[in-house]
Amino acid sequence: MNILAIETSCDETAAAVVRDGREVRSNVVWSQIAVHQPFGGVVPELAARAHIEAIIPVTRTAMEQAGTDWDEIDAIAVTNRPGLSGALLVGVNFAKAAALARRKPLIGVHHIEGHLAALWIDEGDSGEIALPATVLVVSGGHTELIQIDSPGSYRVLGGTIDDAAGEAFDKGARLLELGYPGGPAIQKASERGDERAIPFPRAWLDDALDFSFSGLKTALLRLTKPYELPAEPIFGGAKEQAFVPHIARQFQADMPVADLAAGFQFAIVDVLVEKTIQAAQRHQSRSIGIVGGVAANRRLRDRLLERAGDVLPGIDVRIPAFRYCTDNAAMIGVAGCWAFARGAFSDLDLDVISREPLAERAG
Ligand code: KG4
Ligand code: ZN
C-alpha cells in the first residue's frame, strides 16, 4: 500500500511516498529557511506564498524519486491540523485537487501524530518501538509529553505553558544574535562554551509534567543587557516595507557568548530530559522517544541517553534520523497509513485547524 503524503503546516514544503507504513520510498523537503531568515522567525504570509511556489515541484520530485506512478498510489494524506492556517491551506487544497483529479481517497493527518509516527519509520534498525512508550514532542511550535499506550491511543501527559522548546531556542538565538533557526545556532555556539559557567533558572513546576521556558528567555535578556551597545538609528525605509526585518542587537566583544549559549541550552535540555524520564518512570514505559525539530539537538540526545541509562537501565531510547525529526512528509505518510488501515478517510470539505490538541490530557 502506497501513500502520497503532503506537509505544509509551517515553513517546510514536503512530499513523500511511504509504503506499508514503514518504508520511505521518497522524502522531499523544500525548506523556506532563506525566506524567513531576514525576519528572525517565520512570517506566516510569506510561508503560505512560498508553499504555493514549491508544492507542485516538490510533489513531482517525490513521485519521481519513489518511481511510482499514480496508479500505485492508494491514498493522499495531508497535514490539516494544527499549524499556520494559510500554510496548511496550500497543502490541503493541493491534496484535495490531486485526490479529486486522480480519484484517490483523502486523509487529513494531525501534525503531532505525524511526528510520533516518525518513530515507526524503518531505518534498518532494531524493529518497531516497544509500547507503552513515552514520547517527547519538541519542535518550534510544540512541546508535549505523550504516552502511547497502543497504536493510535494517545494521552497528553504534559505540555508547555508558554513557549515551545524550539521557540525558546529560536528566541534565545535571537537575543544573542546567532541567527535563525535558533536551535542549530545555539548548539553550534555552545560547542566552545561551559554549560555550568553561568547559572540559568529551570522551571520545574513541582511535580507537573508541564514546561515553561519564558523565565529562561527573560534571564538571558537580563544577562546580555550589560554587554549591549546602543542601537544604530534607522533612517526611513522601514515603514514602507511590508515586513520589518529584524534589527540586530550589538554587543561588546567580551560577551561570553559560548558560555551563555551553552548554559541556556543546558537549562532547556535538563528540564526536557528529567521530565521525560519522570513520565516514563510513572507510566512504566518500555521505551522513550524524542521527535520534532529539537530532537536534532546533540546535547539533548546525549543527556537523555546518559540519564536514561542511569535511571531506567534497559529502557529503549529512540530518536529518529534528523531528516525525520524536523518537519517532513514521510512521517505524515506513516500516520496516513494508520488512518488508511482504520478506514479514517476525509471528505473533500476537509478544513484546516490552526490549534487542536492531539488527545485528551491524562488526569
Ligand atoms: O519540527 P520542526 O522542523 O518544525 C516545527 O514543527 O516547529 O522544528 C523546528 C524547530 C526550530 O525551533 C529549530 O530551532 C529547532 O527545531 N531545532 C533545533 C535544532 N535543530 C532544529 N533545536 C535545538 N537544537 C537543534 N540542533
Ligand atoms: Zn513539526
Total strands: the figure is 12
Q: How far apart are the termini?
A: 38 Å
The general outline is globular
Bound molecules: 5'-O-[(R)-(carboxyoxy)(hydroxy)phosphoryl]adenosine, zinc ion
- Average pLDDT works out at 94
Biggest sheet: strands, sense, closure? 5 strands, mixed
Q: How do you describe this structure in short?
A:
The protein is of the alpha/beta class and 363 residues long.
Q: In words, what does this structure look like?
A:
39% of the residues lie in helices and 19% in strands. The chain is of the alpha/beta class and 363 residues long. The chain has a five-stranded mixed sheet with strand order 3-2-1-4-5, with helices on both faces. Strands 8-7-6-11-12 form a five-stranded mixed sheet, with helices on both faces. It has a two-stranded antiparallel ribbon with strand order 9-10. α4 (111-117) crosses α11. The longest helix is centred in the last third of the chain and has 26 residues, at 257-282. 5'-O-[(R)-(carboxyoxy)(hydroxy)phosphoryl]adenosine (KG4) is lined by residues 10, 139-141, 166, 169-170, 181-184, 187, 292-294, 296-297, 326-327.
